[in-house]
Specification:
Strand 3, helix 7 and strand 4 form a beta-alpha-beta unit. This protein is an alpha/beta fold. It is globular and about 70 Å long. It contains 15 helices and seven strands. It has a single domain, classed as TIM Barrel (Alpha-Beta Barrel), CATH 3.20.20. Helix 6 runs parallel beside helix 7 and helix 13 packs across helix 14. Strands 1-2-3-4-5-6-7 form a seven-stranded parallel beta sheet, with helices on both faces.
Length: about 400
């Protein structure tokens, strides 16, 4: 029997695909004039035919293509076709996607927009960009309470971050995406950020880390002294390199270590943390290493002596993780317990796979996951993460 039968299902990872000019629509003139191209420019000529085709479909000029996309939402092929996917850029279509898939709610992340301002040297552009992105995300989700917008917040300037955070909260942003690297020489757990964590905790809005949050394989490690042959493809716009995938979680583990060891999760016990599209294979070893660091070296650190519970227990209490559909989710579940993992589709990104429900079901069935464990995976852990009322069907 399908895991969806009789069960509330929430999606912890989906995206909008920003069209040309999307971010500019919500930005001030000064921010518009100073935006960066981002991880790749939307003005690339290779995108012209695809965006033209998507615009024609949205204008009602290709109803057959619309019906084809609706009949197989996860069947789109290739990195570029995410611009063409049903509900990728149109919020009314996205609401219909939830009906087709059978989702109760869906977290909606941006795709490219944050890379156009997050590392800018001008704080006015950084925080103007945050506000513009957050306005756009709130607008995309405004007409359907099931769509939960994920905003972005830089910690480049703690005071400006607090002002931008209040703007995001006023807009109704449901979760905020942060970078995981140290910024301006400050650890992620620096006390200057405590007012940010306090405001998020008070508002019941969680912190979210996502792929792209931090540095992957450092540039120096790509220098081998020899030419490396890469598969040539006119449509290859993938920004995650093969060497990145095995280490994508390293910056996340550093961030989490700081947040636990330096007492942030002790001081803010209701602050929830989400880790999305970063995999979860690393999680069992990380929990063991976090505990081992305290048990072996805690006597040398007065701060660690102030922790009231084991590091792994902070994770159980406050951290929720979305595994990749390609991972052995059943094995991860058996090693971390029922309270951490969350279902996700990554729609409409192709990395989410053509059968995310089937992939997760096969892995969980292989370990004979109980109804309670499945309820937590598809429903309860997401509701705990977002501070949503517990579903009666869960």
């Amino acid at each position: 029997m399908s895991h969806r039968a009789g069960r509330i299902v929430h999606d912890a990872d989906s995206h909008i695909i920003e069209s040309r000019g999307w971010l500019e629509t919500y930005a001030t003139d000064y921010v518009k004039e100073n935006l960066l191209p981002g991880v790749f420019s939307l003005d690339l000529p290779i995108l012209d035919p695809l965006i033209d085709k998507a615009n024609q479909r949205l204008a009602g000029e290709d109803p057959d293509l619309t019906e084809e996309l609706k009949s197989n939402l996860f069947g789109h092929k290739g990195k570029l076709n995410q611009w063409l996917a049903y509900g990728a850029t149109d919020k009314k279509e996205r609401s219909e996607c939830l009906d087709i898939i059978g989702l109760s709610t869906q977290l909606v992340f941006p795709t490219l927009a944050a890379s156009r301002f997050a590392r800018h040297q001008d704080p006015q552009v950084v925080y103007g960009g945050c506000d513009a992105l957050n306005r756009g995300m709130a607008d995309f989700c405004a007409d359907d309470a099931r769509l939960l917008p994920v905003g972005y917040l830089s910690l480049k300037d703690p005071a400006l971050a607090l002002t931008s955070l209040q703007t995001a909260l006023d807009l109704g942003i449901s979760a905020l995406w942060f970078g995981s690297d140290a910024i301006e020489g400050r650890a992620p757990s620096h006390v200057a950020y405590d007012p940010v964590w306090a405001k998020l905790q008070e508002a019941g809005v969680p912190v979210t880390l996502h792929i792209g949050s931090g540095q992957n394989m450092p540039k120096d490690y790509m220098n081998t002294g020899a030419d490396r042959e890469l598969a040539a493809s006119a449509s290859n716009l993938e920004t995650t390199r093969p060497k990145d995938l095995p280490v994508v979680h390293h910056s996340i583990e550093r961030w989490l270590t700081c947040m636990i060891y330096d007492g942030v999760l002790e001081r803010f016990p209701q602050l929830k943390i989400g880790m999305v599209e970063l995999g979860a294979n690393w999680l069992p070893a990380s929990l063991a290493n976090l505990d081992m660091g305290v048990s072996l070296l805690g006597k040398f650190d007065e701060g660690l002596k102030k922790l009231s519970i084991k590091p792994s227990e902070y994770v159980q209490r406050q951290v929720r993780v979305a595994p990749l559909h390609t991972e052995n989710t059943g094995w991860i579940l058996r090693n971390v317990g029922k309270d951490i993992l969350m279902f996700n589709t990554d729609y409409p990104h192709p990395e989410g796979g053509r059968d995310p429900f089937g992939d997760f079901e096969r892995s969980l069935d292989a370990v004979q996951a109980s109804d309670t464990e499945l309820d937590h995976f598809y429903t309860r852990n997401f509701e705990d993460f977002l501070g949503l009322p517990a579903s009666a069907a869960a």
